[in-house]
């Protein structure tokens, strides 16, 4: 399902009107409507805000990705997290995979890793919020993975 379809479905499930979400997002209704109609796409920062408003995850809004391509194998050092607000969905997926790899392969503590990235790239409040959301989603995915293996 496309982002625009997911967005509309989640909004309808929440019982909110387009104008209400637009007001919460501090954008005009036409901008929000364009996101729902697929004419425009919001920034990653706005996707994070939408996920919070609609009480869902960014993965759910954007459509979950299966990590199956070797193309995804990028190491954390390959990313310039200072421009995280401009990351595409593909960039976010690759970053998540790199974080998972770093945590599992190199046995790095997730909180230390996140703190290191925040300090290294001098992330502002909004960028930290995006990174926190990404780490939270990585944690959920890893918990699902390990719970699956234990069954």
TrEMBL record:
GO terms for molecular function: DNA binding. Pfam families: HTH_3. The keyword Nucleus does not apply. The keyword DNA-binding applies. Residues 7-61 form the HTH cro/C1-type domain. It comes from the Bacteria. Keywords: DNA-binding. Gene3D superfamilies: lambda repressor-like DNA-binding domains. Coiled coil: none annotated. This is Helix-turn-helix transcriptional regulator. The lineage of its organism: Bacteria, Bacillati, Bacillota, Bacilli, Lactobacillales.
């Amino acid at each position: 399902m496309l982002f625009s379809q997911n967005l509309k479905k989640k909004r309808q499930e929440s019982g909110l009107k387009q104008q209400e979400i637009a007001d919460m997002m501090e954008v005009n209704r036409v901008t929000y409507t364009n996101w729902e109609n697929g004419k425009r796409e919001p920034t990653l920062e706005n996707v994070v805000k939408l996920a919070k408003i609609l009480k869902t995850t960014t993965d759910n809004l954007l459509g979950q990705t299966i990590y199956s391509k070797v193309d995804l194998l990028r190491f954390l050092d390959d990313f310039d997290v200072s421009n995280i607000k401009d990351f595409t969905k593909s960039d976010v997926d690759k970053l998540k995979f790199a974080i998972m790899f770093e945590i599992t392969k190199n046995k790095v503590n997730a909180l230390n890793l996140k703190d290191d990235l925040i300090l290294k790239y001098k992330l502002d409040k909004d960028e930290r919020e995006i990174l926190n959301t990404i780490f939270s989603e990585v944690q959920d995915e890893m918990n699902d993975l390990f719970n699956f293996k234990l069954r």
